[in-house]
Amino acid sequence: MSTCLQVGGITVTALNDGVSHLPPLFYPGLDFTAHPDLLSDDGTHHIPAGSFLIRGEGFTVLVDAGTGPVAMPFPADLAAAAGLDPAPRSIAVGGALPDELAAAGTVPEDVTTVFLTHLHADHVGWVAPGGTPFFPNADVVYGAPDWDALIAPAPADDPARIVMEAAAAAGALRPVDSPVVEIAPGVSAHHTPGHTPGHYMVRIADGGQEAYLLGDAVHHPLQLNDTGISFLSDADAVHALKTREEILARLAGRDVAIGMDHFPGLRFQRIGVTAEGRTWRDA
Question: Global pTM?
Answer without folding.
Answer: 0.97
